[in-house]
């Protein structure tokens, strides 16, 4: 998609931000062809609807992990207190930017339990990896669930440590060591939207409730289906906070 970037720069010059649908209507490929109505419908459907199950699954895992780690939950609630105080106002755009530790928690949850545990790609050209030739035209299976547990990039990979994703701790990490939304030109179109959704919903839950996990980690038995789910569901206890 070639025209979207230059149009975006033009919008920045005028101080306007184009709506998602406007961007799709004005986007062209490298040959100057616009998206047809079917292409636009598929992109909008992907953005608005196909992320529901994955986002819901991600929030379930995050609540379970926070319910299993009281200290990390305390840090999230402390951050929420600093941002919102005793107010019950809804989450705004400025708040989302300030919820940095909550974002680290979400990313660490996605590292341990990526909503999509594997995906496939077709190799478009011959390449060599560690001395092995990977020929053009074959299909490759990428498994984020395993990739995210590489101890070279994530020491003690089974431990829940949101601080891994603080800026200072991310320096030098390979950009493809963490790919819960895939990577490159075919990455998830709705990843920023999904992170915003998770922040808004989790912020509301954790401003109003304390979470306690009712299962041990070894009892979850994640199933590597289209969406990563525990075999017997996730059970948590919510206790209303007194302000």
From TrEMBL:
Q: Output the Pfam families linked to this UniProt entry.
A: p450 (PF00067)
Q: Which UniProt keywords apply?
A: Heme, Iron, Metal-binding, Monooxygenase, Oxidoreductase
| Record: residues binding heme | 188
Q: Which cofactor does it need?
A: heme
According to UniProt, the reaction catalysed is:
testosterone + 3 reduced [NADPH--hemoprotein reductase] + 3 O2 = 17beta-estradiol + formate + 3 oxidized [NADPH--hemoprotein reductase] + 4 H2O + 4 H(+); androst-4-ene-3,17-dione + 3 reduced [NADPH--hemoprotein reductase] + 3 O2 = estrone + formate + 3 oxidized [NADPH--hemoprotein reductase] + 4 H2O + 4 H(+)
Does Iron show up as a keyword for this record?
yes
EC number, as in UniProt:
1.14.14.14
* Entry GO MF terms: aromatase activity; heme binding; iron ion binding
Q: Which family does it belong to?
A: Belongs to the cytochrome P450 family.
Function in brief: Catalyzes the formation of aromatic C18 estrogens from C19 androgens.
This one is known as aromatase
Species name: Aldrovandia affinis
């Amino acid at each position: 998609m070639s025209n979207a970037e230059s149009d975006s720069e033009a919008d920045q010059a005028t101080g306007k931000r184009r709506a998602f649908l406007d961007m799709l209507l004005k986007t062209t490929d490298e040959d100057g062809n616009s998206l047809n109505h079917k292409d636009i419908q598929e992109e909008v459907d992907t953005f608005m609807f196909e992320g529901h199950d994955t986002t819901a699954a991600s929030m379930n895992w995050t609540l379970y992990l926070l319910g299993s780690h009281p200290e990390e939950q305390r840090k999230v609630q402390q951050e929420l207190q600093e941002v919102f105080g005793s107010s019950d106002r809804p989450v705004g755009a400025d708040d989302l930017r300030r919820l940095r530790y909550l974002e680290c928690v979400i990313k660490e949850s996605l590292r341990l339990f990526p909503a999509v545990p594997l995906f496939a790609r077709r190799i478009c050209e011959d390449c060599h990896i560690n001395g092995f030739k990977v020929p053009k035209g074959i299909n490759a299976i990428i498994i984020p669930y395993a990739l995210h547990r590489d101890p070279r990039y994530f020491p003690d990979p089974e431990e829940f440590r949101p601080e891994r994703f603080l800026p200072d701790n991310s320096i030098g990490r390979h950009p493809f060591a963490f790919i819960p939304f895939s990577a490159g030109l075919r990455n998830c179109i709705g990843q920023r939207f999904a992170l915003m959704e998770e922040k808004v919903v989790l912020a509301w839950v954790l401003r109003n409730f304390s979470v306690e996990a009712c299962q041990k980690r070894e009892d979850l038995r994640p199933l590597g289906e289209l969406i990563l789910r525990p075999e017997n569901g996730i059970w948590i206890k919510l206790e209303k906070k007194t302000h």
